[in-house]
């Protein structure tokens, strides 16, 4: 997985470049301010405001576009959690938010999503897998989804 194939990334924090861009945009919009907003003020405003909410919304909406109206998925994963488990699951998701929820542990994560044939390779890093879990998620047919669901019960 090379940086050049990276489609989408979520880190959960802002980079200096993002803060600087927001600061410059704010100061350009508020022409005539006696005291333009500083880098530190913008950083605090972004951390305490709705910035992350809207950034997450943008992330999941773009993922929805990348899903290309596919609904049924198979996730083959390895190095999951602190026990480095491997396995697979099938799931239904027609939007980026449900897709992420289906493959993620219930904790703060960093996501790196790469194109992989007609699906995705995804690295999910978190406190139990700081080097990242590795997921290959590909679309499957409704028939394959139904068959897998029956076998898993």
Characterise this structure.
- The chain is α+β, with helices and mostly antiparallel strands and 153 residues long.
- It has 2 domains: 13-62; 69-152, no CATH class.
- 39% of the residues lie in helices and 31% in strands.
- The protein has helices at 16-29, 39-48, 51-66, 96-103, 142-152, and strands at 6-10, 72-80, 85-92, 110-116, 119-126, 129-139.
- Strands 1-4-5-6-2-3 form a 6-stranded antiparallel sheet.
- A hairpin with a 4-residue loop joins strand 2 and strand 3 (85-92).
- The relative contact order is 0.16.
- The mean pLDDT is 90.
Overall pLDDT level: 90
**Beta-strand percent range:** 25-35%
Low-confidence stretches: none
Q: Radius of gyration, rounded?
A: 19 Å
What are the defining features of this structure?
2 domains, 153 residues, 6-stranded antiparallel beta sheet
Write the layout of secondary structure elements.
Elements (H helix, E strand, L loop, with lengths): L5 E5 L5 H14 L9 H10 L2 H16 L5 E9 L4 E8 L3 H8 L6 E7 L2 E8 L2 E11 L2 H11 L1
Antiparallel strand pairs: 1-4, 2-3, 2-6, 4-5, 5-6
Helix pairs in contact: 1-2, 3-4
Short description:
With 153 residues, this protein is an alpha+beta fold.
